Amino acid sequence: MASVVPHVPFGDVVTRTETLGGEPHLFSRKVSPDVSVTSQHSTGRCWIFAACNVARFAMMKKFGLPKSFELSQAHVFYWDKIERANWFLNCVWQESPSGIDSRTMQHLVAKPTEDGGQWDMLVAVIEKHGLMPKPCFPDLVHGRASGSMNGALNLKLREFASRLVDLRGDGGDDAAAASMIGGMMTAVHRVVATALGTPPATIDYEYEADGGKGLRAVRGATPLAFYRDLVKPCFDFAAHVSVVHDPRAEHAPGSVMTVALLGNVVGSAHAVRYVNAPISTLKRLVVDSVAANVPVWFGCDVGKSLHRDRGVLSLTTYDFAGVLGASSCMDKATRLRYGHSLMVRPRPAAGRRAPLPVALRRPRHSCTKPDVPPCPADPCHGLLRLPRAG
Predict the structure, then answer these.
(1) SS3 of 159-227
(2) What global pTM score does this model have?
(3) What pLDDT does 207 receive?
């Protein structure tokens, strides 16, 4: 085995083939209507795509939109980049008395901007800047591959952070900092608008209603009005909360948690919060939501157990212990505490598989000989299946 591993892709070596064929990609209940697959391309915008997909289900049902309808992920991305830069600069000023070498300041400047985010950050941006259909502001080159834009933004934001720290050292006050940040944000706007383009101030959108019911149009609406009048009655982002499972002893079930300095819109009423609950509660909420024909914005650290090509997510996918002798005895609380598990990769949960009735399980042998044992019933566990990322 040791002589083979260096010449074979690592994932192929440690994959348990019996796991890949153990559960079919079938659902006992799926959210309708059927929708087209979306792609975040080479970006970390899964949280935005998942949220827009959850909302479009409800919109398609109400307005007869075609299955290809999408909300503009680029519009949310654009305003998140700008708002997040302003958030970063204000956090730097707030923490600057501790000096650039403090652990908090080093955490801030390590990654001034990135693509990922949390549910309440979506709510903050959408409630402030609204939404629009994707044809009004589609993805362009840097919307599909954001690395170069992020690099340029991080360069400028670190430079701006150094100027704010110097201002604090020179005895500057909050008013001086606010004025300085205002000037800095002009440069941020230029970088983001140059890379992504500028969203239109009003929406002109035509579509053919599903089922051949003729052409319809939205004319002259602002993104905020579009969200308030057309999206929010179907799906109110602000009416939903993040429910998580954190088994660490210091976070009791039912407690409300947050993360210091995490956010994007300065002054927003929608601070990042999570309600802690047992994993059984999370499962029940997802099952109930799918039964009510409402998809769920669902985050999971899938990278460690996902077989991407086969679309299988299972804790038994890879045999690290058998191949490498590298088994782990960390429970979930320990993995969270030591940074081996994170709240990442949101996607819409749009279906579930319930245990099959006995009559529908694998058929028994047709042989009537008494010494031929029947096939055992399939161990169906009511697994939640998530759509593959595009």
Answers:
(1) HHHHHHHHHHHCCCCHHHHHHHHHHHHHHHHHHHHHHHCCCCCCEEEEEECCCCCCEEEEEEECHHHHH
(2) 0.87
(3) 87
